[in-house]
Amino acid sequence: DGEVHINELKNGNAEMFWNPTSEVRRQRLKRHIVLFEEQTDFESERLWQHVTSAINRGDQHKATQEKFVLEEEQRNAARERRENGTEWKPLLFRHDATTNEWHYKYEDLRPWDPSNDIAQFEKNGILQTMEKHLSTKMSNHKTTCINNQITRHKRSAKDCRRRKTSDQPSNHSQNTESSCSTPESVQELSDDDGKYLRFESLCAQCGKEMNHLKEIHSAVLSLQKAQQDIHR
């Protein structure tokens, strides 16, 4: 976000290469990072802190030394694993034996879809995209869940009435409690006949997806706030 010059060493001339306008500076994306004290030992900012500090001070010799220390520790750790027969299993990367390259496991290479994609965020090292149709899928699944429970309730009530009619004498039918019980209800819905039907709580998948949607919603609110700060 500052001026960049090209310096010609032969003749000492300096040429302006990049000079961002105030409008460009205002459009700069806000940087979101994990607080240093909350980072684990192997996160880049913490792991390379001494190298970074030396570079910022302009001490190239110290930066090279610190870099060598880190790389030597990695070589020693790899040597110990080979000697102990321990296999290295990265959490977020996979090895391509054909190209001998490492690739991020959760890479999303599809083009961004403005009509469906809302925001992209990272959680526990995994990139995720919030999509508009996710809420629709959740709603459809929830509706299916409820309809299935209503169907089971109707069937249960019908069997209950059938047993009650066949087992109970007619003159005591109104004073005798049914042997069938209705599951403890959480909500009531109206069926096509206008009668209210009770149904059990939503399935585990619904609950899990609802919690996931709440987390995504919270992340989106944070992104929106950051966007507003950028516009200001």
What's the average pLDDT? 77
Question: What can be said about the biggest beta sheet?
Answer: 2 strands, antiparallel
Oligomer: single chain
Looking across the biggest beta sheet, what order are the strands in?
Answer: 1-2
- Our count of helices gives 6
Structural class: alpha+beta
- Helicity range of the residues? 40-55%
Poorly predicted regions: 170-200
- The 3D shape can be described as extended
InterPro entries: OSBP_sf, Oxysterol-bd
Biased composition (Polar residues): 167-188
Pfam families: Oxysterol_BP
GO molecular function: lipid binding
List keywords for this structure.
8 strands; single chain; alpha+beta; two-stranded antiparallel ribbon; OSBP_sf; 16% strand
